[in-house]
Design a protein that fits this description.
mainly alpha; about 230 residues; 12 helices; elongated
């Protein structure tokens, strides 16, 4: 039996939540959003492009995109058809191009070309949902936020930190368990942990720093032959 299974462990969701923050901070002490950007607008655009696409691919596409359209005013002057060839590798490029053209025009018309620092205004922009707004709020404006993607949802459920199966429910549960100051980096660490270790199909529980108290990992590691 894995010796981690015999150690004392936090049993309550709050205890597991605090232990998760502490251990992931040790494992991933310095984290920053992987999307390359030089402004709130560029982070917003890159986050929209990251839907159903890897960060690495977005980072390959955005240098040429931002060289041509560095800010909202420049992109608002472009049509969706002009944007499509530049973002084609990110997938769903027609819908994304419409979103980028629409949000750029809305930024110019409503906010003088500047990205607002309020969630209510962000989610009114075309193509911007709660997760995208949370990324921009947390990583540009310094407003604590918990972006919930598939990795956060999966890891939080496996850790027993939530029973919700929708992003807003997971966000609500994590917000209740974590100190507000930990929201942004805590969520990013969950995302990175979900990509590196707690993957969807074959989680690497034997390499997981959270395995000692993760209900899902304990079930995996307790199986005969492990």
């Amino acid at each position: 039996m894995d010796d981690r299974l015999t150690r004392p462990r936090p049993r309550s969701p709050r205890g597991r939540a605090r232990a998760t923050l502490a251990l992931l901070a040790e494992d991933l002490p310095r984290v920053e959003v992987p999307l390359r950007h030089a402004s709130a607008f560029q982070l917003l655009v890159a986050t929209v492009l990251s839907a159903q696409c890897t960060d690495a691919m977005v980072n390959r596409v955005t240098p040429a995109l931002f060289a041509r359209y560095p800010d909202a005013r420049a992109m608002a002057a472009a049509s969706a058809e002009e944007l499509e060839p530049l973002i084609r590798p990110t997938g769903f490029f027609r819908a994304k191009a419409r979103s980028l053209a629409g949000l750029s025009a809305a930024l110019v018309e409503r906010h003088g070309g500047e990205v607002p620092g309020a969630r209510a205004e962000l989610v009114r922009l075309p193509g911007v949902g709660r997760k995208t707004a949370s990324v921009v709020l947390g990583h540009w404006f310094g407003v604590p936020a918990i972006p919930v993607d598939t990795h956060v949802l999966r890891v939080a459920r496996r850790l027993g930190l939530t029973a919700a199966d929708d992003p807003e429910g997971v966000e609500r549960d994590l917000a209740a368990l974590w100190p507000r100051r930990e929201w942004t980096d805590g969520a990013l660490r969950l995302i990175l942990h979900g990509r590196r270790v707690c993957v969807a199909r074959r989680p690497r529980c034997e390499a997981c720093v959270l395995a000692g108290f993760c209900p899902s990992a304990r079930a995996v590691l307790s199986r005969p032959g492990r």
